[in-house]
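Section: protein folds

Sequence with per-residue tokens
===
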Amino acid sequence: MESRLSCGAVEGSVQGDALKSPIRTCAQCATELSQYNSGDLCAACAKAKSAPGVPDRAWRQEAVHQALAEWDFGEVLRLVRKRSGLSQIAVRDLTTLPQSFISALEQGRKQVGSPATLLDLLNGLGIPEDLQHLLLAPLSRNAPKPGLSPAVEAALPWTADRMVASLEVAIGGTTAMKRRRVLTALSGATLTQYVMQSAVAPVEALASSGTTTVTESLIDSLQGTTDALRRADAVGGSGALAETARYHLQMLVGLLKNGRCNQALLRRLAAVAADTASQAGWYTFDSGNHNAAQHLFLGALRAAHASGDSRLRAGALGFLAIHGYSAGDPRDAITAARAARQAITDQDAPALHAMLLTRQARGHAKLREEHHVKAALGETEELCRRGAGEDDPHWLYWINPGEIFGQTGSCYLDLGKPDQAALAFADARKVLLLDQTRTSAQFLARAAVAQMRAGDADAACLTAHEVLDLVDRVRSARLDDHLRTMLDEARLNRDYRPVQDLLDRGRSVLSERVVA
């Protein structure tokens, strides 16, 4: 099977921002299309229908390797085309890029200005998988090339030692001064470079040089603790779970450093660490500490990479997507979700794909890109009809129709369509699991906002009182934000008596939660 680069792997790592203009996607695989591509297929899909291609021998030259490492894509194109004996017309057919652009690129009069264009170029030419690591060269040098972010974390190598160091920083295992310096939010090109490295960096062997024996039963027990914390969060919110999860993660990091076992068990240990770091990041995010949460997600991404489990890598990217559309740049959410889906193309995991599509849809909704929201939600609905797949992970038990309907309602609320949002939330409440109190309270709070904006104050007040009945059992800073938004929306109708009663009760509940 031919290897292909993904949009999530390079987006933001080149100059320009393709997301500033409306996004078009491939009719066959849904990859983002370059602005220069006037057709309806990406380069990889178009190439599959055309011949001849670039022979492997065209890539086997030191000058080509050097040009790839220096991101001199005009030189890459010129050398590969010359060694293949292809005309610019043939390259146009392979890459879907205009001949005028191909000519200008080779002559140095134009540069690759967007991730989609770079993907069309390299996928169309068929860059061999064993040469893709050369694209990491500019990111690993002490003096990054112009146009690339100098952020330290994104440029550090994806080794086992760096995985441990990243997790230690995220949980506070280094000096306070160093932690303050590192724990600033990544976004845009810097964050995408991180995603790119996770996609193409090779997975190295894990070292087993410690004195503590790690057994399969011990790893099972550690995973059981992570699963128990996950279930507690679904019912009662993050509460004190963030601190507990950090202690649990610290134990796992200690075993990664000092444990002794075979390679298979080491990878399982890294997998549990990845899952735990993602959960610790989620509890931290739910507690309102967004920057610290993001670095736990980044540490989880490194641990997932070391484990070799692409589903865990997709899960960590999914959490980064939540961070993007909730507390950062929605474009980062789209990048992370797309990269995550690309990572699991070989997995039978419809539920995991559906979850990632809802995260992508939320990013598009924040940007008011209704067409892309509907496309993502439509595909989500089709995947849900399939049910769970053979490779869907056990930790994704919470993906159900109620979650999908709730995320659909949130998208329509962000799109400024409260009537459609209210209908989706109404569908969600019919099928939400009763024991997922925090999730139910959040979706109902958004439902009350949608009803208020749709002009149904009576229904909104009834829904809002249901929320206030639920929140007493849940501790979540994120839920508190939803409560404030709900009450702020109600204040626009403060002259209506039922709304006045709601506001009085809401103020009392919020004041008690602040004290607690």
Remarks:
- DSSP finds 25 helices and two strands in the chain.
- Strands lie at 212-213, 259-260.
- Residues 263-286 form the longest helix (24 residues).
